Write the structure tokens for this entry.
Amino acid sequence: MASHPKHGLVTVAQHIIEQQRNHPTATGQFSWLLSGITLATKIIESHVRRAGITNVLGETGESNVQGELVQKLDLIANETIMRCLGYRGNIGILVSEEEDEPRIIKNTSGSGNYVVLFDPLDGSSNIDVNVSIGTIFSILHKREDVWPSDGPEKHVLQPGIRQLAAGYVVYGSSTVLAYTTGDGVHMFTLNPDIGAFVLHQEGVIMPDVGKTYSINEAYRASFPQGIQDYLEWAKTDNYSQRYIGSLVADFHRTLLRGGVFLYPPTKKSPEGKLRLLYEANPMAFLAEQAGGAATDGQHRIMEKTPQHMHERTPLIIGSKSEVERVHQFLEKG
């Protein structure tokens, strides 16, 4: 893993250009698309950083399609991404976790071949208490076998293995972008002096083992028996629990330090809680590209074919050996 570029600063845009020879998705068009995402996240970061002094904390009083209360920053983040990507001529469909339906981008050139799915502000319930939150994105190609009369959903409902790219931005003590186009995971830090994401780790590898687990144990009594047994075993084997309650932040720590993040089904949410398209698929792509694994407890996350836009899924993600260990307990339970 390269920690620092050899020849000065390397921005995201420069990195994509350098990767063009190695991956067919890393084209000039893709660089233009990704620049829209990085622009949006820099704007979101500025709102997050000044949230307490610009009156954007708290709820709007409305609920989103998930039935969750919408935070003011949720709305700002969603509209920021929609604006920044809506003018990219190569994007055909935008899909947000916050909205009922996909937004079709009217494109007179007919070159809008990309589908971008995103969770504009993951972990937004933590906004008011200044805990790390983030943005997650996933990029697909529109399907060639779909007619305009079929509607946009058929372009959207693709398994994770068809992702061209995925990534996240975590707004924490520093603002960090991690992304993959299927050629490893690369990490950038926002340099506020120049207003650009600068490469600081190339080819990130997740440790294969890590004695840390992340889970909301408040729901332990309603977890599957195998998960309960795993948690009991982990305590006796001196594992540590680290749980932030923001998927981006919990996954970021797991990516860098190893371990496992678990959001299993519960009696209240038997299908799981996390969204397959906006959260599980992009994180699974990143995990696998870093040498980790991601499943729903039975199947590889990226091989699941979504049936509807806001489908939920259980998620077990992290170091490969740690995910396999959880599976062993599930099989016995």
Observations:
- The longest strand covers residues 114-122.
- Helices lie at 12-19, 28-49, 72-86, 153-156, 225-236, 247-257, 276-289, 320-332.
- Residues 28-49 form the longest helix (22 residues).
